[in-house]
Write a structure and sequence with these properties.
280 residues, alpha+beta, Jelly Rolls, seven-stranded antiparallel sheet, four-stranded antiparallel sheet, globular
Length: 280
């Protein structure tokens, strides 16, 4: 299944409800995607910090798709590129992504929330069949619209749904997107999402994108991407992503490269904090 620019109806849906679902978009190459995914994990010992995944808690690798020439190539693939360009413009920024082995439930959250945020989206690649009861992603339509009374009430109350609304997290009304390997879901970082009942090794990886940043917001962008310092990385993009980048791909990398020095600063500060003796 090929993908071209989004239609006006798709863009209207995305901007109104905060997500889009593309079943089977990458079904023709899912075997190769899964092989690349597993190769990266094997190269990291199968889990966190060179240790096998224990199935007890989520394991994360960052950056993730950037470590594979093949997964990096999807930044050039029209099926992915044209979705992002339709939403964020032809000069969008790619800010890397994480690889995940999820365990059990993922509670309701946004990947950043705020009306003045630089517009940004996530593409999630699902590599295992999941249903409503086995870890399918759930999204709350309209929850991305910061400033609206509905979205603001969700932001304030959803983490205490049992006390405030008398329902558990999995009972919160939502769109449940059951997926098969090769499906992708796109959503605004502001959009509330969750998953419940998942297995002990639920595979998913992401790619994250921002609008091209105007000069008067570069400092804000630097602060935003500096949070990736928590992953103990020295730069946002991985080696394979950079090594295989042609001129067209560099359009989506260069502004991040020019502004990710804050990651190194945060990394150095965290290292210094860890080395200080505890007080008290």
């Amino acid at each position: 299944m090929s993908q071209t620019r989004l239609t006006g109806q798709q863009l209207n849906f995305f901007n109104t409800f905060g997500y889009l679902y593309f079943p089977g978009l990458l079904a023709d190459c899912i075997c190769r995607i899964v092989k690349a995914f597993e190769t990266i994990w094997a190269g990291h010992g199968g889990g966190h910090h060179g240790k096998p995944h224990d199935g007890e808690q989520r394991a994360v690798i960052f950056p993730f798709p950037d470590q594979s020439e093949y997964l990096s190539s999807f930044l050039d693939d029209p099926r992915i590129h044209d979705i992002v360009a339709s939403i964020l413009g032809d000069d969008f920024n790619y800010t890397s992504g994480d690889g995940n082995l999820y365990v059990g439930d993922t509670q309701w959250h946004s990947d950043g929330y705020g009306g003045k945020r630089i517009p940004s989206i996530k593409i999630a690649f699902y590599l295992d069949p999941v249903t409503r009861d086995t870890g399918a992603v759930r999204v709350i339509p309209g929850s991305h619209r910061c400033g609206d009374a509905f979205a603001e009430r969700l932001e304030a109350d959803i983490r205490d749904s049992a006390n405030i609304w008398g329902i558990s997290g999995e009972e919160v009304p939502a769109a449940i997107l059951e997926t098969q390997p090769g499906d992708i879901v796109v959503f605004w970082h502001n959009t509330k999402h969750a998953a419940f009942g998942g297995s002990k090794r639920r595979r998913m990886y992401t790619m994250n994108f921002y609008e091209h940043i105007p000069d008067d917001r570069l400092e804000e962008f630097q602060e935003t991407i500096s949070h990736e310092g928590r992953f103990w990385i020295d730069r946002i993009h991985g080696e394979a992503m950079l090594r295989t980048a042609g001129p067209d791909r560099m359009v989506h990398l260069q502004q991040v490269i020019d502004n990710d020095f804050k990651v190194k600063e945060v990394h150095a500060r965290l290292r210094e904090e860890r080395s200080e003796p505890s007080r008290g």
